[in-house]
């Protein structure tokens, strides 16, 4: 919404997005390496085979555009849940509003960027046939683009339009002549 209000430059938004993405990737790789290689938590079946088959089904065997479209839905659901969580006053309403879109996203197998940073690298550590190039080209690129589009277009732009743009239009037309506080013909 701040970008649509023209607060900040495109470079600032791009820098924050890249630093955040890289920080999440580094964190996911560290977490994946620690919990996959050092603790061997997922090295036994059914956890190992389940993780590899999930990545094979969701990423390796899926087409690029399917991954991209599912991730648009995920981006919308995640940002929508954040928006719903801020709209409620009490704790129960906030918790329910935050969790229902996440439940839907998980049940519909909608991929989230940070989730698949972890799952993709974990599957690779466990012996998945996914290469590093495939992790970036077929997993992280379509998911990142889709999540970004889903969040910006379906939640961010909508929120800006409803809460800021329409409020500005209402204020401009408050006196009924469409000129807002500018009054033509008044001699005061």
From TrEMBL:
Stored Pfam families: Form_Nir_trans
Where in or outside the cell it occurs: the entry states: Membrane
Q: How does it sit in the membrane?
A: Multi-pass membrane protein
GO CC list: plasma membrane
GO biological process terms, alphabetically, are: nitrite transport
Q: Which GO terms describe its molecular function?
A: high-affinity secondary active nitrite transmembrane transporter activity
> What superkingdom heads the lineage?
Eukaryota
| InterPro entries noted in UniProt | Aquaporin-like, For/NO2_transpt
Query: Is the Cell membrane keyword given for this protein?
Result: no
Keyword Iron listed? The answer is no
| Similarity comment | Belongs to the FNT transporter (TC 1.A.16) family.
Q: What is this protein called?
A: Formate/nitrite transporter
Q: Origin organism of this chain?
A: Aureobasidium mustum
- Recite the lineage of the species: Eukaryota, Fungi, Dikarya, Ascomycota, Pezizomycotina
């Amino acid at each position: 919404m701040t970008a649509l209000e023209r607060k900040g430059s495109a470079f600032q938004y791009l820098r924050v997005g890249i630093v955040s993405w890289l920080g999440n990737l580094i964190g996911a790789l560290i977490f994946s390496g620690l919990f996959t290689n050092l603790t061997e938590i997922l090295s036994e079946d059914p956890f190992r085979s389940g993780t590899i088959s999930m990545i094979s089904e969701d990423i390796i065997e899926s087409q690029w555009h399917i991954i991209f479209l599912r991730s648009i839905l995920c981006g919308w659901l995640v940002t929508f849940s954040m928006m719903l969580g801020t709209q409620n006053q009490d704790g129960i309403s906030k918790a329910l509003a935050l969790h229902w879109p996440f439940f839907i996203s998980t049940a519909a197998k909608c991929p989230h960027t940070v989730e698949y940073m972890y799952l993709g690298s974990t599957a690779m550590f466990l012996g998945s046939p996914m290469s590093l190039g495939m992790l970036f080209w077929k997993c992280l690129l379509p998911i990142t683009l889709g999540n970004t589009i889903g969040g910006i277009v379906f939640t961010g732009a909508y929120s800006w339009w409803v809460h800021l743009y329409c409020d500005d239009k209402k204020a401009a037309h408050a006196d009924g002549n469409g000129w807002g506080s500018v009054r033509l013909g008044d001699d005061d």
